[in-house]
Structure formats: structure tokens, C-alpha cells
Design goal:
Length: 38
């Protein structure tokens, strides 16, 4: 589900322009939870 070919953005609205959420470990839990929630 892309937003019309704009810069890559994570499902929670964080830009994944190379940085991703590597420095943010707290977001990791949200990501895993959201993925497993489906």
C-alpha cells in the first residue's frame, strides 16, 4: 500500500529515508505488534 510513489514512509507515518527506525527501539515493539495484530 504505497502513497502514489512518494518517499517511503512506514505505516505509522515515519519516513524511511535510509534512517528507518533503527535508533528508535521503542518503535520496534509497535511495529512487531502491528504486524502480528493482523
Amino acid at each position: 500500500r504505497t502513497s502514489g510513489g512518494r518517499h517511503p514512509v512506514t505505516p505509522w507515518g515515519k519516513p524511511t529515508k535510509g534512517k528507518k527506525t533503527r535508533h528508535n527501539k521503542a518503535a520496534d515493539r509497535l511495529i512487531v505488534r502491528r504486524r502480528h495484530k493482523r
